[in-house]
Amino acid sequence: MNISLLSANACQLKLVLKAGPESDFYQMLLYMITSSIALQIIVGLILVSKYMVEVDGLTEGEKATALRLNSLATSLVTLITALNVIVSTFIGS
To answer: Which residues cross the membrane (predicted)?
Structure first.
């Protein structure tokens, strides 16, 4: 989880909320920024839960679950990145 990205999203959300519903792309930006923030929190929770367990003492099933969590976190980070690229494109419009 990147604190600077979370902070940037909070600033972007503040900017969009100040602009109000009459601004261009208001609903889309509001949805995408809040989605990005929520996904960042979810990724943080996934990573914390994943790293709280000892990898050496895991059974094969638990290792598979840890791998799935890792894949999920990676996929969500990719989605967060895509959301933020789109938000950055429209935030100045």
So the answer is: 28-48, 69-91
